Amino acid sequence: MSTVSWITARGLFGRRRFLMLLPLPAVLLVLAVTSRALGVDPGQWGPPVLVGLGLAVVLPVVALIVGTGVLGAEIDDGTVVHILTKPLPRWQIVLPKLAVATGVTAVTVAVPLYVAGVLAHSVRLGLALAVAASLGALAYSALFVALSLLTRRPVLLGLVYVLIWEGLLGNVVSGTKVLSIQQYVIALADRLAPTELLGTTVSVTVAAVMTALVSVGFTVLAVDRLRSYSVAGETS
Amino acid sequence: MSATSTERTLSPTAAESSGSAASTLDLAGVSRWYGNVVAVNDVTMRLGPGVTGLLGPNGAGKTTLLHMMAGFLAPSRGAVTLDGAPTWRNPGVYRRLGLVSEREAVHTFLTAQEFVLASAKLHRLPDPEAATRRAIALVEMESAQDRRIGTYSKGMRQRTRVAAALVHDPQVLLLDEPFNGMDPRQRLHMMGLLHSLGDAGRTILFSSHILEEVEQVSGTVQVMVAGRLAASGDFRTIRRLMTNRPHVFAVRSTDDRALAVALIAEPSVTGVELDRNGLTVRAGDYGAFTRALPKVALARGIRVRQLLPADESLESVFSYLVEA
Question: How many CB pairs under 8 A join A and B?
Answer without folding.
Answer: 98
